[in-house]
Amino acid sequence: MAAERGDLWVFGYGSLMWRPGFDYAERHAARLHGYHRSLCIFSHVHRGTPDTPGLVLGLDRGGQCRGIAFRCEPELAEATLAYLREREQATAVYLERQVRIRLDDGRDVMAVTYVADRSHVQYAGRLPVEDLVRLVRQGVGISGANPDYVKSTHGKLIELGVSDPILARIAGRLSEGEGSAAFT
Fold first, then answer.
1. How many Å apart are CA 129 and CA 105, to the nearest integer?
2. What is the pTM of this model?
3. For residues 85 and 70, is the Cβ–Cβ distance under 8 A?
4. Which has the closest alpha carbon to 153: 5, 13, 1?
5. d(CA 42, CA 73)
6. Active-site residue, 178 included
7. Strands (E), 90-142
8. Annotated catalytic residue, options 78, 86, 88, 96
9. What angle do CA 124, 130, 136 make, to 5 degrees?
10. Are 180 and 133 in contact (CB under 8 A)?
11. What's the angle, vertex CA 152, arms to CA 147 and CA 154, rounded to 5?
12. Cα–Cα distances in Å, from 118 out to 44, 59, 178?
């Protein structure tokens, strides 16, 4: 979890990239091997409800993921972890993991991140694009509208120079259909 001085590194791949919510000393683009970003989590709190779920990103097995790594000073590590656990573990759909990531400057560090728990009832797995769009369109939770989450994450990926064809397709479909419940 900690770097050489007891620092805490956090790997963000979804909303943490554009709304970390904690203080950090450094921020770098980073790559994680062994997992990929996927809209594979039914959101029952932040971007949906149990009756009208939305979809949020999870790290699912296989591939690689580009995201952002944040370094927190040692004196903020405990408070940062407490914040992340409250935010990411509202329904225990994620597993907290320590993973090796490579920063854009070539350093390898251990970072905390949250991966999809495939055994959890909220794990959606791989869904057809039509279902992804429908679920994202309907989702609204305590953190806001699900389409805003998808479009903000897609926008941050574009800033990073990261191509995510599925997220791009969904964001495009959401923009096409703004103000309309219908989609093609």
1. 35
2. 0.90
3. no
4. 13
5. 33
6. no
7. 94-103, 108-116, 140-141
8. 88
9. 60
10. no
11. 95
12. 16, 10, 32
Side chain identity at residue 61, one-letter code: R
CATH value of 8-176 in 3.40.50.1360, 3.40.190.10, 3.10.490.10, 3.90.226.10: 3.10.490.10
> Which whole-number Å values give the CA distances from 117 to 92, 95, 114, 156, in the listed order?
8, 6, 9, 25
Residue 118, amino acid: R
Closest C-alpha to 26, from 109, 97, 94: 109
Sketch the domain layout of the chain as residue ranges.
8-176
> How many whole angstroms separate alpha carbon 166 and alpha carbon 173?
11
Residue count of the chain, please give it. Answer: 184
Structure tokens at 36: 């990929």
What is the chain's pLDDT, residue by residue, as a tens digit (184 residues)? 334 468 999 999 999 999 999 999 999 999 999 999 999 999 999 999 999 999 999 999 999 999 999 999 999 999 999 999 999 999 999 999 999 999 999 999 999 999 999 999 999 999 999 999 999 999 999 999 999 999 999 999 999 999 999 999 999 999 886 544 433 3
Take residue 54 and report the two structure tokens written for it.
């939305």
